[in-house]
C-alpha cells in the first residue's frame, strides 16, 4: 500500500481518535484547535511519507507528530497558553510546562466515549447530531456526508459548524457521564446512533460503499458502548442485535443498479449468516435485566425476519412484537407493519378493516400497504391505491417499487 | 380529539363463571391485540398501566380488603384513549375482550 492509499484509510480510523483525546483535553471551546492540529498532522504525513516513504509504524508516527504539534502550539500561542494550559493544569496532577497527551488505547476509548455523549446532545437537532457524529466520531469529510444526505457541501458545512457553536454556547463538558446520568442520556445517544445507521441503510445515495461504511461506523460506536462497563446495558446490546440483523441483508436488498429489492423477493443466500449469528448472540445478551426497550422489540422483529420461511409462528410472533412496540411508542411505520403482520395472521379482510382505521391517507406507504392487501381481493381498488401511493411518493426509488407492485396486480 | 376513560368491569366473584387457565391465556393475547390496534391508530392517550387485582375499599365502617363480597362487578383495569366523540369511543370499546367474559366497559369523556 502506498501513502496515497494509506493516508485516507488512516484518516478515517485515526483522525477521530486523536481529535477526541485532544478535545477532551482542551474542552469543547477549543474544538477547532484540536481539529487543526490533527489536520496538520495528516498534512505532514502526506508530505513526509511521499518523500521518505511510509514509516514502520504509521499510527505511532501520527501520534508522536500530533503530540509534538500540540506542544508546539502550546509554546507558540499565548491565548492557548493562558486559556487552556491553566485549565489543563488545573485538572491534572502534573505541574510545570509539560502537558501530558495520553494516546493510549484506554484513553482513546474513554475520550471517544466522552465525545459520543457530548455530540449526541439534544441541544442540537437530530440532523445536526448525525452530521457532527459522522464528522467528529467517524472521520467522514463534508463531501462524503453531503453525498449521503443528497445535499450540497455548503449545507453540511454550515450544519456542522452551527452544531459546534451550539455545543460551545451550551458549554457542554466533554466527560463520561456518571452511572446515574447514563440512564437519562443513553436514550438520546442510542437514538442518534440508530439514525446514523438508518442514514446509511435507507439512504437513496448510489454510493453503496459509503452507505455500508455509515452502517459499519454506527455499529462501531455501539460496540464502543458495549466495551465500556457502565454503558454495556441491555438496550445497547439490543440495538447491536438489531443492527446486525438489518446489516445481514445489506447485500440482498439492492440490485446492481442500486434499486431496492423487497424483502419477499430477496435471495436469502445473499444474507450474511455471520451477522445473523452475531445478532442472535447480542440479542441473547440483551435479555438480562428487566428493561424492555423498543430496540429489544425491533431486534425481535428483525430476528424473525431472518427466518425466510413463512411459518404461522413467525408472523404470530412478529404481530405480538409490533403490538408491544406500538403500545410502547407509536410510529406510522410500525402501525403499517403491524397491519401487514395482521394480514399474515388473520387474513386480508381483517387487515384491510384495521388498515382503514389508521388515517394515514397522506403516507405513500399506507396506500402501498392497502394496494398489496387488496391485490387478489379487489384488484381495481389495489390499482387505485398503488396509483395514489405513486403520486404521493417523492423518491425515484420508492416510485419504482410502487410501479413494480402495481404491475403485479392481475389486470382488472 | 377528546380523551375518554375506559373502565373495564366484570364479576370476579361467582365461581361458576370464572374463565379456565386456557381461556385466561387466550384473553391475554386478545387484550394485547386490542391494545395494539388502538396504539396502531395512535389513540392511546397514556401509557398502559397495570393495577393490582385486589386493592382495598374504604367506607364509613372502615377499610376492607378486596375481593369484595358486596361489589358484584369489580374494576379489572382502565385505559385512557383519544377519540373524536362518544360514538367513536364506544366503537373502540366494542372490541374490548372483557365483553366476551360477560363484563362491561364504562366510558367517560374528559371535560
Structural notes for this entry:
Chain A has a domain at 1-103. Chain A is 71% helix and 0% strand. Chain A contains 19 helices and no strands. Chain B is α+β, with helices and mostly antiparallel strands. Chain B has a single domain, classed as Dimeric alpha+beta barrel (Alpha-Beta Plaits), CATH 3.30.70.1060. Chain B is globular. The mean pLDDT of chain B is 91. At the A-B interface, helix 14 and helix 15 of A face helix 1 of B.
Strand sequence of the main sheet of chain B, in spatial order?
Answer: 4-1-5
How large a portion of the residues of chain B is in β-strands, by DSSP E?
25-35%
Tell me, briefly, the overall form of chain B.
globular
Query: How many strand segments of chain A?
Result: 0
Helix/strand/pairing category of chain A = mainly alpha
Tell me the fraction of residues in β-strands of chain A, as a range: under 5%
Query: What kind of sheet is the major sheet of chain A?
Result: none
Write down the secondary-structure element order of chain A.
Answer: HHHHHHHHHHHHHHHHHHH
Distance between the termini of chain B: 12 Å
In the predicted model, the low-confidence regions of chain A spanning at least 5 consecutive residues are none
Please state the average pLDDT score of chain A: 89
The radius of gyration over CA of chain A amounts to: 25 Å
Mean pLDDT of chain B: 91
Q: Share of helix among residues of chain A?
A: over 70%
Number of helices of chain A: 19
Quaternary structure classification: heterodimer
Protein name (chain A): RNA polymerase subunit sigma
Organism (chain A): Flavobacterium humi
Domain RNA polymerase sigma-70 region (chain A): 10-78
GO molecular function, one term (chain A): DNA-binding transcription factor activity
Main traits of this protein?
heterodimer; A: 412 residues; mainly alpha; 19 helices; 71% helix; 0% strand; B: 111 residues; alpha+beta; Alpha-Beta Plaits; three-stranded antiparallel beta sheet; two-stranded antiparallel ribbon; 32% strand
